[in-house]
Design brief:
- 40% of the residues lie in helices and 16% in strands.
- By secondary structure, it is of the alpha/beta class.
- It folds into three domains: 45 residues, 434 Repressor (Amino-terminal Domain); 100 residues, Response regulator (Rossmann fold, 3-Layer(aba) Sandwich); 150 residues, 3-Layer(aba) Sandwich (Rossmann fold).
- It has a seven-stranded mixed beta sheet, with helices on both faces. Strands 2-1-3-4-5 form a five-stranded parallel beta sheet, sandwiched between helices.
- Strand 3, helix 8 and strand 4 form a beta-alpha-beta unit.
- Helix 7 runs parallel beside helix 8.
- The protein is elongated, with a radius of gyration of 27 Å.
- The N and C termini lie far apart (101 Å).
Length: 359
């Protein structure tokens, strides 16, 4: 007797063939210690004959009201989860918590189409973690509509969602004060401004028009530093790359370094971008930091290897925090720590000149 290939064999059919109760079949797969060796062998033999692979995970999830799976929504191509160092570290933190608590991890990539919202609605997960996205991303509405717990990394802050982040504006201001010290023509190498991810090279950029909250907050922080140093924000050149790619950053930084007014400091929003700036500067025969001051972000291995000043943050810890919040933990409130790591890629600040005599 062969099972119908169009229908999945049921637990009831296995019980009938094995000559045992449905409960015995269920225990065979979930609590084998409560089933005799003889009964278990009968069940497994009947299951093999019928092609029964075990209880349907979806049905079991409906029965118990949970899937024991966390969904991570990336507003990027799926390969971003494995290629981008920041995403890799963040996902590792989530995976740490999932492994510790016996949860699975489902990555839900976004394509920028209407299919995204349907994919979110159909995801068999207990809660969602959303990688930083734009303020107006309709996927956030789709997540809200599921009624499940949701955590956003980096932003946007949204009612009904929990937020895991650092104070990006304060960190950018602190890094800008180091990078732009002694500079006359500072510049910024930025993440994309909006979902279109177009490459931009412009001055007098209004940070409040940027749709990615992390990018917006960092630009605001760099502007704070520029103004605190007595410089004019309107003169600051901002280059936005379409991706967090070293090669693209090198190309855009090369364009910055050939502008009529010589750029003498560049603050990048990632260490990968900063390495690209460093290579462009080397090609232009510029001395670091005397002619060009450079900083990155994340204090990664690349920053240490290239003596880059950088903002340090622990993305793995932030991923773990997001996972614990998604699973219902409450002791995760508040912004995560950050620090400025100063290396040889930035200048020492100019000496303080006191007026009215010396002490």
């Amino acid at each position: 007797m062969q099972s119908n290939p169009q229908r999945r064999p049921t637990m009831s059919q296995v019980a009938t063939r094995a000559g045992v109760s449905v409960m015995t079949v269920s225990y065979t797969y979930s609590r084998a210690d409560r089933v005799s060796v003889e009964s278990r062998e009968k069940v497994l033999q009947a299951a093999a004959e019928l092609g029964y692979a075990g209880p349907d995970p979806a049905a079991r999830s409906l029965r118990y009201g949970r899937t024991r799976t966390l969904g991570v929504i990336l507003g990027e191509h799926l390969t971003y989860a494995f290629d981008n160092p920041q995403a890799v570290a963040f996902l590792a933190g989530i995976a740490d918590v999932c492994a510790d608590r016996g949860y699975g991890l489902l990555i839900v990539p976004m394509t920028g189409t209407d299919e995204d919202s349907r994919r979110v609605a159909g995801a068999a997960v207990d809660a969602f973690i959303v990688w930083t996205t734009t303020d107006d991303n309709p996927v956030l509405d789709a997540v809200s509509a599921t009624g499940r717990t949701a955590v956003i990394h980096g932003g946007p802050a949204r009612a009904g969602f929990k937020l895991v982040s650092i104070d990006n504006r304060a960190a950018a201001r602190a890094m800008g004060m180091k990078t732009f010290a002694g500079a006359r023509r500072p510049a910024i190498l930025s993440f994309p401004f909006n979902a279109a991810r177009t490459t931009v090279l412009a001055s007098d950029v209004d940070p409040d028009t940027v749709q990615f909250p992390v990018t917006r907050q960092r630009l605001l922080g760099y502007r704070d530093a520029v103004e605190a140093l007595g410089l004019n924000w309107k003169d600051v050149v901002v280059g936005a790359t379409a991706t967090n790619d070293e090669g693209e950053a090198r190309s855009l930084a090369g364009r910055m370094l050939t502008l009529d007014h010589q750029v003498d400091a560049i603050a990048a929003m990632s260490d990968e971008q900063a390495v690209g700036v460093l290579k462009a500067a080397t090609n232009a025969l510029l001395r670091i930091p005397e002619t060009l001051s450079i900083s990155g972000w994340d204090d990664s291995k690349a920053a240490a290897e290239n003596d880059l000043s950088s903002v340090a943050q622990d993305l793995r810890a932030q991923g773990a925090s997001a996972a614990r919040l998604a699973l219902g933990d409450r002791a995760e409130a508040g912004a995560h720590d950050w620090s400025v790591v100063v290396r040889t890629s930035t200048r020492d600040p100019p000496p303080l000149i006191r007026h009215g005599g010396t002490r």
